[in-house]
Design a protein that fits this description.
Blueprint: E1 8-11, E2 14-17, E3 22-25, E4 28-30, H1 34-45, H2 53-60, H3 68-82, E5 90-93, E6 97-100, E7 105-107, H4 115-118, E8 127-128, E9 136-137, H5 152-163, E10 169-173, H6 180-190, E11 199-203, H7 217-229, H8 239-247, E12 252-257, H9 266-275, E13 279-285, E14 294-298, H10 313-316, H11 320-332
Parallel strand pairs: 10-13, 10-14, 11-12, 12-13
Antiparallel strand pairs: 1-2, 1-7, 2-3, 3-4, 5-6, 8-9
């Protein structure tokens, strides 16, 4: 029999065994509920950066709409297991999210947490220096993520909306965990060939950190967009002014994720669209921006079977939530078979 190489994360005296799906201290296993393990694994994978509640929920609950209470209970479970009353491992940033504070080492890991298992996460591409007040920004490339389950109708509808000449701002709204970010990514991927000057993603979850409280939301959003596009500040002109000059003749799609974090900056988008007729903006937010030229699309949760249903397997897999469950299970475990023993998990 071939010896199994465990895939692990280690931090302090703790070990996350990804192969067995358990938390260890020394050689002893510490009880942790499956969802709590997934939350801890995701935080450890993304150590050192702010993870919002929405991001955690979307990554762990796989587009199933849940309340914040489910996440809070998991974090209580994790803090108990780690003895983390003082938040030495997981720091809570009030009203923002969480930061995993410990250094994490990866050991014996040929495959540890990828886009396919964790859900899709955008990365702002690096930029190349150029002369003047701009840099050469690298636009978004098509992701290698798995196909998005159960959203074909929404993707087509959003793309058709963005194609309309009278539409410049489309906002995807919905509860945390409804899949707004992943849906926006799928639309961005499908639109790459439709925007001559590229598609750019701007994550706004962490722009309003405590040290920046003296800066208003509009300035923070303008700065985040400028950083992504490679636009620099210059004397005698505002950053917003420089952005308008840079974007003036460009046919470009901006995806602004987690706009609820900076909702007071919404009028800035109207300022952009008024001056830039070729610019399209796709926003994700828990709440609508309440702009006159905004078109809101509510993202519903994936379809689930009725409770206590006795549907056949072939009928169950017609529900997109079940299809996603099976897809993700097979990504983590290629020999996974959907049967009577695990159908209750759906």
């Amino acid at each position: 029999m071939q010896k199994l190489t465990h895939q692990i994360y280690s931090f302090d005296e703790f070990t996350l065994d990804l192969t067995r799906g358990c938390l260890l201290r020394g050689g002893s296993e510490i009880k942790l509920r499956p969802k709590s393990f997934e939350v801890l694994k995701y935080l450890a994978e993304n150590g050192g950066r702010l993870i919002t509640k929405d991001e955690l929920i979307e990554a762990v609950w796989l587009e199933t709409a849940v309340t914040d209470d489910s996440l809070v209970q998991c974090l209580k479970d994790i803090r108990r297991a780690l003895g983390d009353k003082a938040q030495n491992f997981i720091k809570t940033v009030p009203r923002r999210g969480y930061i995993f504070e410990k250094e994490v080492n990866e050991n014996n890991a040929a495959f540890i947490y990828t886009e396919e298992t964790a859900g899709v996460h955008f990365v702002i591409e690096e930029t190349l220096e150029d002369e003047g007040n701009t840099e050469i920004a690298v636009p978004r490339q098509k992701s290698k993520a798995e196909s998005l389950v159960g959203r074909a109708t929404e993707i087509v509808g959003i793309k058709n909306l963005l194609r309309r000449n009278d539409v410049q701002i489309a906002t995807l709204t919905g509860a945390g965990g409804s899949g707004k970010t992943r849906l926006a990514q799928a639309v961005a991927d499908d639109c790459l060939m439709e925007f001559a000057d590229g598609v750019f993603f701007v994550g706004l979850a962490a722009v309003n950190d405590a040290e920046l409280v003296a800066v208003n939301d509009a300035e923070l959003v303008a700065s985040a967009i400028a950083q992504t596009l490679g636009v620099k500040e210059s004397r005698g002109k505002s950053l917003t002014g420089n952005l308008i000059i840079f974007l003036r003749e460009k046919r470009l799609l901006l995806v602004l994720d987690n706009f609820e974090q900076v909702i007071s900056a919404a009028p800035l988008l109207t300022k952009f669209t008024a001056a830039l007729p070729f610019l399209k903006i796709l926003v994700t937010s828990r709440a609508a921006l309440r702009l006159r030229d905004e078109h809101e699309l509510i993202v519903p949760p994936l379809a689930v079977p009725p409770k206590d249903s006795r549907l056949k397997f072939s009928e169950l897999e017609n529900y997109s939530a079940v299809e996603l469950f099976v897809q993700r299970a097979r990504t983590a475990k290629p020999d996974f078979i959907f049967n009577d023993k695990n159908r209750l998990c759906t």
